[in-house]
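Hi Y.,

Following your request, here is the sequence exactly as I used it, all 131 residues.
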Amino acid sequence: HLATSLPLPSERDHLRPRIDLIVFMIDIKSKYSLKNIEASLAHVDASFFLGKVCFLVTGVGRVNYCSVDMNAIWKLGEVYCSPVLFCELELEGIRVATAQRLLRMLQICAGHIPGVSALSFGSLMRGSADD
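Below is the corresponding structure, written out as C-alpha cells. Let me know if you'd prefer a different format.
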C-alpha cells in the first residue's frame, strides 16, 4: 500500500492491514520529498524504528540535479536507527535488485524468515554500513 504522507486517515483503520515495514522514499531531486518525510516521521510509533523503517533514496544517478543535502539523508538514517538504501529507478537491473532487497526486508519484518527478527536485521544493516 502506498501513501503520500502520514498520518494515514483514521476512518479506515478497521480495514487497514497490519503494517510490517515502512519505506520512506526520498527523491534526490526534490526538497519537498525530504520535507514531507521529515513531517511524516512524527506520526510513526517509536517501536517501528526497531528494524521496521528504511529510507529509500531515488534518483541517485543524477547527482548533478541533486536538491537534497546528502548529509541530511544520512542523518535521518542515523537519528532513526534505520537503513538508507539508494536506487536509480530508471535502471532496470538496479530497480529489480532494490525491489528484491525490499521484499526480503519485508519478509523479515513480517516474521516470515525463521530465526531473524526485524530488530536483529536492523542491527546487521547498521553494522555492515559502519564497516
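The chain is about 40% helix and 10% strand.

Thanks again,
Q.
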